[in-house]
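USER: Study each token:
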Amino acid sequence: MATASNKKAANKPAGDKSQGLKVVPKRAGFRRAGYSFPEGETVIPLADITGDQYDQLTSEPMLITVLVELPAVTA
């Protein structure tokens, strides 16, 4: 009999294109949600990921994630 996890996944914020998710792996080359994370930080615009990907990234203990404001794009 399968049991449901008690851990509740986070929900992707309904932000606009000015927000991103900064991801820092605890081990270089770690992969999750279709992304590979090199040493250092990677910023993914929220518009580029699905709600499921957001949940996978923010609930992964091998990743440190922080919501950030993206720099304004100038013409």
